[in-house]
Every structure is written in C-alpha cells, then in structure tokens.
Specification:
The structure holds two protein chains of two kinds.
Chain A: H1 2-7, H2 18-49, H3 57-81, H4 86-112, H5 115-138, H6 144-162, H7 172-191, H8 197-221, H9 226-250, H10 260-278, H11 289-293, H12 306-337, H13 342-358, H14 363-377, H15 385-409, H16 413-421, H17 426-453, H18 458-462, H19 483-490, H20 496-531
Chain B: H1 2-19, E1 39-50, E2 53-64, E3 68-72, H2 79-86, E4 96-104, E5 107-108, H3 116-122, E6 123-126, H4 137-147, H5 154-164, H6 168-171, H7 184-196, E7 202-206, H8 214-227, E8 232-236, H9 240-246, E9 249-254, E10 258-264, H10 265-270, H11 275-281
Parallel strand pairs in B: 3-8, 3-9, 6-7, 7-8
Antiparallel strand pairs in B: 1-2, 1-4, 4-5, 9-10
Helix pairs in contact in B: 4-5, 4-7, 5-7, 7-8
C-alpha cells in the first residue's frame, strides 16, 4: 500500500475517511430524528392543552405584534448597542422564572400541611435543633450534629403531642413570617459576608419588613391569599432585589439590563390587550388555574388535576426519603465497607452485578412485588399513599444505588489515602472527605431517578391505586391517585373533549414537573463541575 | 504460605552460591547498626506480600530519631511498600500481608492491641502527588486536630503549622480559599503543614517532590532540612542527588524488596561497599 502511494508520486494522500464520514452522518441523522420527534410530540400536546387551535389568526397577529415588538426592540438594544448588558438581562429574565418554579414547590408543601402544623413543628422542633447545632458548632464541638439531631427528635415528639392542643393560634401571615421570612432573612444575612455586621442586619431588616408588607398589607388591597403573597415575595422578589442590589452597587452602568422582566411583563400584557382587541376568538386554554386546583369531574370544563398532583407529591416525598436513605446507605456499604476478597468478596461482586440487573427489571414486576409484599404479606391497604410510595421506592432503588456508587467511586483515591494517613477512622474519612465530594453526584442521580418515579403508571395500577380520587390525600394511609394515572384514565374517556384537551393538559402539567426536576439536577451537576 | 517460604529458602541458597562470586551478597556489615537509645523505628525480618508476590524480603533496619533517612532504589524495589508498612497504610490494601516485626519506640506496631488509626496519628505521611482536601486552606490544616477532637487554640496551631511548612506568608490573607486552588508546590507544602499540625513524631514522605518543578522542589528540600530539627523524617526518593543533599542516613533497596546497604549518606555515596549498590549509584542500572 505504502509503496503504491509512493509510486503514484503523492505520498501524502490516499487515506480514506469514507467510513468515518458515513458514520458521522448516520449519528447526526439519528440524533436529529430523536430531537425532531420529541419536539413534535411536545408541540402537539401543548397545542391541545392550551387550545391554541381555537384562536383566530387575528388574535395571533395581535399577540405577536404586542408582545414581539417591545421585546425585539429591547433585545436589539441590549445585544447590539450594549453587549455588556447581555448577561445581566438574561439573568434578570430567568431569575423570576426559576423563582416561580420554587414558589410552586413551596406552595404545594403549604397546601399539604396547614400553616398551624408548620408553626408548631418549626417552633418546637426545627428551631431549637438548628440553634443548638449552630451554637455547638461555633465552639468547634464535634457533637453538634448529634446533639442538634437529638434536640430535634425530642422537639418532634413534643410537637406531635402539642399539635392537638395549641394555646395560641396566630393568623396565617404571622405564621409564614415566623416560619419562612425570618429564617430566610437570617440565612441571607449570614451569607452576606463576614466583615460587615451592620450591613447584614440592614439586609435582614429590609427582608423582614418586606415580608410583613407582603403578608399583611398586600392581601388586603389585592385579592391574593397571604400564603401566595409571601411565597411569591420570597422566591421571586427577594432574589430579584438582591441581584439588582448587587448590579447597582458593583457595576452601576449595567442597570438597563435589569429592566428585562419589566419589559417582558409589559410586552406580555400589551400582547394580550392587542390580541383581544384585534382577534375575534382567543385560545381555549385548558391548562389554567381552575384545572390545577379542582378535582376530577364528569364535566370536562370543571375537571381538574388537584388530587392527583397532591397525590404525586405525597408519593414522591416517601420515595425521596426511602430511596435516598436506603440507596445511599447501600452504595456506601458496597463501595467502602464491603469485603472484596475471599468468599464474602465473591458475594459482594454478585450483589453489585445484580443491583445493575435489577435496574432493568420492568416496572410492572415491581408493581407485583409491591402488591405481594406490602399489601398481601404485610397487610397494608390497597392503593394507599404508603404502599404506592414504597413500591416506587423499590423501583428506583437500583438506579439510586448505581448512581451513588458511581459518585462515590469517582472520589479520587488519594484524598481518601490522605485522610487515612492523618489518622482518620473509616467513618471520619467517609463523613468528611468522601461524602462531601460525592454528594452533588448522588443528588443528581437521585433527582433523575425521582423524575422517573413520578411518571410511572404500571406499578401503581398493580397495587390497586385508583385512577381517579375526588379528594386530595391527607394522611399516608389515604387512597391515592397520581398524575399519570389520572391522564391514563382521561385518555380512555367516552367524551372526546377529555381525550383531546383534558388529557393533554394533564400531560403538560406532568412534563412541567418532570422538566423542572431535571433542571434542578442539571443545575446541581453544573455547579459541581465548576467547583472541581 | 509454606510453599512460598520454602521457595524463598531455596532462593536464599541461590544467592549464597552466587555470593561466592562476591557481587550479590547482603553482608551484615553493609547494614549499619544504630544504638538502641537513638533508634525510633526498627524492622526485624520484615516481609510484605501482595497476594503471593513478595514485595519486601527480610528487611532489618534501625532508623534514628530526629534525622532524615532517605530510601532509594529502582522502581518496584519495595521502597514505598516499606514506608507504608511503618504506619500500616498497607492495611488498606486487601491482599497485603505482613510478617516479621516492625517496632516504633520499641512497640511492635503489628501487635494485636495496636490500633492503626492511633498509630497514624503519631506517624504522619506526605504523598507523592499533592492531595489537599477540596476544602479551605484553613480547614485542610485543621483537619487533623478536628478529627482528634483536639481543637484548643486551633487558630494558633494552624498558623504555627503553616509557618513551619514555610507557607504562612503566601496564604495568610486567603485562608478561606480552597487548598486545591494553590500551585503544585504550595499544595505539597500545605500537605506537609496538614501532617505536622497534629505534631506527629515521625513524618513519612513518599517521593514528595517528584511531581514538582525544580524551584518548588528546592523549597521542599529546604523545608525537610528544617523539619529534621523537630521530627524524624523518612523520605522515599527516586532522585539520588536529592537523597545526597538532604539526608543523614541512606538505605538502598534493590530489586526483590531487599535492603542491600544502609549507613551514613556520605559514606554510601562516596564509598559503597556493595557492588550492586555501586552500580546503581553510578547509574549503571535502575
């Protein structure tokens, strides 16, 4: 071959890349196929869920002009004339959105547990535990987590007794101020920097005063509940204000970038107004506030997903706690403690291989396992929250274990050696060196596994969960339904409106929850990669 | 185990026969004897096996207190294995097995009632590649005192350790920054500060400068000189000039995990008694 090349008088050509090029082309085609199909699916569901087909073209024209023109002008101003503003503008635009996602999560917690429960448990259990922990840690006492945990546990027991007999019942906004705003203010203040004690207390004071305004004054003038008002204040307004303060104090000239949420909001409002004046018919939105807050109904217009959303949140709470504790424990054992030599070492290897196998077992089988183990053998009820949560925990446990094992294994061995060389015990090494480095990876894997659990249908059907329940579950032994079950039921409904509009609305809600969970996982991973 | 013993005995006979040719013997006279009063670490018939493979072969050595002892030899000769046998880091390797005696201040560290964790708190270690924890500089140095629940005057002790490791002036204004953000040479001095923060009696160093540039290396060498005033330093090195520069005693290990010659550094480098050691030092092999 080489000789013929030389004979041809070339010598530097004749290396074929044909196969590589074909392979690259195929790979590109495959990935585009996947992306396009997925995008198409999402588009179809969104069109149905928001009834976009019903709107007239005039409405779209109005919306496009009203929203598009100001946004484009602002975007042109930012990107063309002042490129330095770009990052500020992007951040201020994204910040409220991320805040809204967080507010949604927080709001669900306050829907499930009433504010009075928060008040009692926070005051008697959480607050003393945190105070004791911080006090001991300031004195460099290594028993801080232990004592803090003990105080918390005792407080928890006391709180469970106290709940039935509370002498004072503060108004809701005061409870929220005490449970959310004050701790948040002290957290922000303590992060503000160690050298300026005065500035810290000013910041904390401003946040608390704002919280009082949001909780007590705003709900009276505008028709929102104090819960919604305070939660939105904390998760949207405070971060925005914080960031704006940073920009103004450090890079004053970039302030026009801060206008992006205002511009977007105003453009959205203008778009709606224009669309309604020009267009005859707006979109027939199915995924609205009513859909999210009402129970299932035989009338499509009144049907909602609320009990299923709360059910899913209940289930995912159990799954998160059980699979995280058991999964991370198992992963630590398998990676750090399990013997690797001799017959017990063989057993370890068998277990490791089979954990990977278990991750591939179909979810229906896990449903059968849940039915046999929890319902038949242990005599728990059919279709209750606890059984659903435990069954889904079993389902994702192998995935959690595997990802946690990977994260623990990726901790470089030389920092372990360094710790042992300092005379640290195995537990001290795991606690101080291995886990801090592995925890972001562990969290990422767990959250991705959780977002799989929240979309599971088959195992829930197997353990006898109802496809439709009319009241949100209140305890761990209530009958439960979940979002995918409800969607599944709607998709078989006799009324076509359920199939064509209500089910897509449910799908979009489910996807929204899953995508925000994945976004959190990606955020954690990026943060972790930046740090190491 | 019996099999491997007899195998080694037969190998011993082989060396005896070859010793008649004068080149390959390990003569007792080649291993210098240190008075017991000055000895801090003593090995007797120390063998280390990795599975069936013998990494250390009947090592007898006495290491003197508050001096720098260098261990040199070609790759795979058991230098690091010997170092890790002293503070029982070999325990962390499942297949490693130790026979014979290794005494630290007269106490056999492989005795049943010796806790390797307690031993490592008295015998510190610095590794080949700098391996600070991904924590702040302060927390790196404070790690040892904290795991021992001994946190009186922590600030003072961190400062003293950093000063003794000749790092204080470079980092005193940024103790909150991460140790992993320092340069390679600074990271290694941070690791040394971390090791001396708990005031060990011995510091073991496993090729501490092999991953560093010449400037950082010379800083580490100066530092080792200083450390020998307060601590016993045992250092494994690949670099013979380094051993000659910084050590008081030198031990030469050769292939097969054998300690071939041990004595004053000057004497070993100027007038080695063993032919193989002479070949190794003059660069004929290794």
């Amino acid at each position: 071959m080489a000789e013929t090349d030389v004979d041809a008088g070339v010598g530097f050509t004749g290396v074929s890349r044909l196969r590589g090029k074909v392979f690259a082309l195929l790979a590109r085609a495959a990935s585009w196929f996947g992306i396009v199909v997925l995008g198409l699916l999402l588009a179809l569901v969104v069109v149905d869920a928001f009834g976009l087909a019903a709107a007239s073209s005039g409405w779209y024209a109005g919306a496009l002009v009203g929203f598009g023109a100001p946004t484009l002008i602002y975007a042109w101003y930012v990107t063309r004339t002042r490129p330095a503003l770009r990052s500020v503008a992007a951040r201020t635009a994204v910040l409220p959105l991320a805040g809204l996602v967080m507010a949604g999560g927080l709001a669900v917690l306050f829907v499930i547990f009433e504010p009075l429960l928060w008040f009692v448990y926070y005051t008697v259990s959480v607050l003393p535990a945190v105070l004791v922990f911080l006090l001991l840690r300031r004195q460099e006492d290594s028993r801080a987590p232990l004592v803090g945990g003990f105080v918390g546990a005792v407080g928890f027991a006391a709180a469970s007794v106290l709940v039935g007999w509370v002498p004072i019942k503060p108004v809701t906004w005061l409870i929220l101020l005490w449970v959310l705003v004050v701790p948040f203010a002290s957290l922000v203040a303590s992060r503000a920097g160690t050298d300026s004690r005065n500035r810290q207390s000013t910041i904390a004071g401003i946040i608390v005063v704002g919280g009082i305004l949001a909780g007590a004054v705003l709900p009276r003038s505008v028709a929102v509940s104090p819960e919604v008002s305070i939660i939105l204040y904390l998760s949207v307004l405070v971060p925005l204000g914080w960031y704006a303060g940073l920009v103004v104090s450090r890079e004053r000239r970039r302030w026009p970038g801060l206008l992006s949420p205002l511009v977007l909001g105003a453009a959205g409002w203008l778009g709606l107004v224009l669309a309604d004046t020009i267009g005859r018919q707006g979109p027939d939105v199915w995924l609205d506030w009513q859909f999210l807050t009402s129970a299932a109904s035989t009338f499509p217009e009144q049907a909602g997903l609320f009990p299923a959303i709360v059910g899913s949140v209940f289930i995912i709470d159990i799954v998160a706690v059980v699979s995280f504790v058991v999964g991370v424990g198992a992963a630590i054992y398998l990676e750090e403690y399990a013997p690797t030599t001799g017959y017990t070492g063989l057993l370890t290897r068998v277990i490791r291989v089979n954990v990977a196998n278990l991750a591939g077992v179909p979810s229906v089988v896990y449903g059968l396992l849940g039915l046999g183990l929890f319902v038949n053998l242990l005599g728990m009820g059919l279709g209750i929250v606890l059984v659903a949560g435990l069954t889904l925990s079993l389902l994702i446990l192998p995935i959690v274990i595997i990802s946690a094992q990977e994260a623990i294994r990726s901790v470089p061995n030389d920092v372990r050696q360094a710790s042992y060389g300092m005379g640290a015990t195995k537990w001290q090494t795991i606690r101080n060196v291995v886990l801090p480095r592995a925890i972001p990876g562990i969290l990422t894997g767990t959250i991705l596994a959780l977002s799989r659990a929240i979309g599971e249908t088959a195992p829930l059907l197997m353990i006898g969960a109802a496809t439709t329940v009319f009241a949100a579950p209140e305890t761990f032994t209530s009958q439960v339904s979940a979002m995918p079950l409800q969607v599944f039921y709607w998709s078989f409904s006799v009324k076509s409106t359920f199939r064509e509009f209500v089910a897509p609305a449910g799908v979009v809600t489910l996807l929204g929850v899953m995508l925000s969970m994945n976004a959190i996982a990606i955020y954690l991973r990026n943060r972790y990669e930046q740090r190491t | 185990m019996d099999e491997s013993m007899s195998e080694n005995q037969s190998r011993g006979k082989e060396t005896e026969t070859s010793s008649s040719m004068g080149d390959f013997s390990v003569d007792a006279a080649d291993i210098e004897d240190i008075p017991d009063s000055e000895t801090i670490i003593e090995a007797r018939d120390l063998d280390v096996y990795y599975g069936d493979e013998r990494a250390l072969n009947d090592v007898d050595i006495k290491i003197p207190e508050q001096q720098v002892t260098a261990i040199i030899g070609p790759s795979g000769c058991g230098k690091s294995t010997f170092l890790r046998a002293i503070n029982r880091m070999n325990d962390l390797i499942d297949i490693a097995r130790v026979t014979g005696e290794l005494r630290f201040k007269g106490k056999d560290v492989y005795d049943e009632n010796v806790d390797p964790v307690a031993l490592r708190r008295r015998v510190g270690m610095v590794f080949q590649a700098p391996n600070p924890f991904p924590k702040s500089i302060y927390d790196n140095v404070a790690y040892g005192p904290r795991i021992q629940n001994d946190t009186d005057n922590l600030d003072e002790r961190v400062e003293r350790a950093l000063r003794n490791a000749a790092l204080w002036d470079e980092v005193k204004d940024r103790l909150e920054e991460r140790g992993t953000d320092l340069s390679g040479g600074q990271q290694q001095r941070l690791c040394i500060a971390r090791a001396i923060a708990v005031d060990p009696e011995v510091i073991l160093m496993d090729e501490p400068a092999s991953a560093l540039d010449p400037v950082a290396t010379s800083k580490i060498e100066d530092l080792i000189d200083e450390l020998a005033k307060d601590y016993t330093v045992v250092i494994v090195t690949h670099n013979m000039q380094q051993a000659a520069r910084i050590s008081d005693k030198t031990a030469v290990f050769l292939t097969g995990g054998e300690l071939v010659e041990y004595g004053d550094t000057n004497r070993i480098f100027e007038n080695p008694r063993n032919k193989r050691v002479e070949d190794y030092i003059s660069g004929k092999f290794g």
